[in-house]
Amino acid sequence: MKGKELLYWLWLSLACRPGSALPSTLLKFFGSPKKIYDADEDDFAELDIPFYGHEKDLCDKSLDRAKDILAWCKKEKVGLATPDDYFYPDSFRVLPNKPMVLYYLGNFCDFENRFTVGVVGTRHPSNYGIHAAKRISYDLARSGAVIVSGLATGIDAAAHRAALYHESFTVGIIGCGIDKVYPKENAELYEEVIRKGLIMTEYPPGTAPMGKNFPVRNRLISALSDAVCVIEGSEQSGSLITAEDALKQGKALYAVPGSIFARESAGSNFLLRIGAKPCLSAYDLVEDFRSRYPSLEGAVALFAKTEVKQKKQEKKKTPDLKKKIRSYVFPGSARNEEEKAVPTEYEFVLIDASDEPRPTEGEKEKEAVQSSCLPQLSPEERSVYSALGYEPVNADSLVSQELSASALLRILTKLEIKGLVRKVPGGKYVLTDRAEM
Q1: Nearest C-alpha neighbor of 224 from the set 123, 117, 134
Q2: Alpha-carbon distances of 283 from 250, 287, 291, rounded to whole Å
Q3: Which of 147, 149, 320, 354 is the most buried (most CB within 10 A)?
């Protein structure tokens, strides 16, 4: 794009705050940022649309700040993308409040032909939440999926790191200027995502990571994703705003079940109660989307899924979850009046059920234990392995009539040597996350 045209896109993005639907509305009337720039106060007054206080900024025709930003981006080698660029994501183009300018570091991928999953959750997760984020994100990455998140601490960081561990492409969408690393402790992760993936933002350089920015940013995480998976979040968690945006945009919504006694699971459990699909493993998402993305067909073997050729059976009718939620205000939603003006009707997206019969819970457990990703286990080792989880378990609680204390310790030692379990303080044991192996 020519520099002069880019200046007008920058001017328009600066005249209206990020998340505003006004620029898209003005483009429908005027056709281009240059014509909006050339319009005067009388031209704007003829339009029967709300301006939400942006009239003064739109009538300010100075390009000085836009020129300064363009010069800085050239110097720092920061990329700029507008809706006129071919690599600007198509899923952003259809947003009523799409970004006029994206600042980015790294490289874009072919998002239209890649299965993309938004993995979001609390900044203060439990051990269970961290393990769930790592395991699901790692398995999605090795299945060929692109992981999208917000580069925050907690669930976001765990999801990015799991994808990077598998050398997979990951995208971080931030709620501040591209020159700001937030939080500071994620500086190393920030650099690694740039090297192996993409970081982008609609906020101009110098913008501080203020709390009001993140609810606006969240709509881009859901828009770029085919599905959004929420892993832990309180009733006031920003991940519920991402979930709301996903529903508005017609994206599939998943949530990882959590303890009914844990505050950090209240948000994800709430989503399950109102109709989100439960995510028990990455297989749930891969199975639902492999018909849309043929490249995921080969990923089914990663989950020890046995393909059985059988005559197609008539599809059973599933409960109607396609209920519209018009007036419910999600807990934690922080919307200003301008954002509320964007249409808010949405409905759950149903994924067609597979023609093949689903395995029973017992069959799933058996397949998981016999996964080709695990070494061969004896029946005793398999029994102990199946009794462990990602929350510490006291070894004494595993002793039974069939298994003495000495035999149990011997088996646990063997599983430790095989890298399947690890000992933690207090004489307790947990499973070793495959994303850490």
Answers
A1: 117
A2: 21, 6, 13
A3: 147
Number of neighbouring beta carbons within 10 Å of residue 321: 13
31 Cβ partners below 8 Å, 6+ apart?
A: none
Instruction: Tell me phi and psi for residue 285, to 5 degrees.
Output: -75, -45
Contact 253, 277 (CB under 8 A): yes
Instruction: Convert the pLDDT of each residue in 284-308 to its tens digit.
Output: 999 999 999 988 877 777 775 444 3
**Cis peptide upstream of residue 99 (ω within 30 degrees of 0):** no
User: Could you give the 3-state DSSP secondary structure of residue 431?
Assistant: strand
The token pair at 298 is: 């080969």
Residue written as token pair 């600042």 = 103
pLDDT digits (tens, 9 = 90+) for 93-103: 999 999 999 99
Which segments within 82-234 are labelled E, that is strand?
102-106, 116-121, 146-149, 170-173, 198-201, 227-231
Compute how many other C-beta atoms are within 10 angstroms of the C-beta atom of residue 208.
11
CA-CA distance, 384 to 168, in Å (whole number)?
33
62's tokens: 């100075």
Q: Which residue bears the tokens 């492999």?
A: 290
* pLDDT exceeds cutoff 70 at 61: yes
- Cα torsion through 258, 261, 265, 271, rounded to 10: 80
Residue listed under structure tokens 């989950």: 303
Q: Is the dihedral of CA 282, 305, 363, 352 positive or negative?
A: positive
Cβ atoms 100, 23 nearer than 8 A: yes
Q: How far apart are CA 234 and CA 383, in angstroms?
A: 35
CA distance 406 to 144: 43
pTM summary value? 0.75
Gap between the terminal Cα atoms of the chain: 45
Per DSSP, the three-state class of 181 is coil
Confirm if 168 and 299 have CB atoms less than 8 A apart: no
Helix axes 3-15, 64-76, angle to 10 degrees: 120
The answer to whether 430 and 388 are in contact (CB under 8 A) is yes
C-beta neighbour count of 236 within 10 angstroms:
14
Which residues make Cβ contacts (< 8 Å) with residue 251, sequence separation at least 6? 222, 223, 225, 226, 227, 228, 349
Q: Kindly give, in sequence order, each residue whose CB lies less than 8 Å from that of residue 213, ignoring residues fewer than 6 positions away.
A: 18, 175, 176, 203, 207
Nearest to 276 by CA among 317, 222, 327: 222
What is the arithmetic mean of pLDDT over 74-89? Answer: 96
Say how far apart CA 259 and CA 251 lie, in whole Å. Answer: 26
pLDDT digits (tens, 9 = 90+) for 26-59: 999 999 999 999 999 999 989 989 898 898 999 9
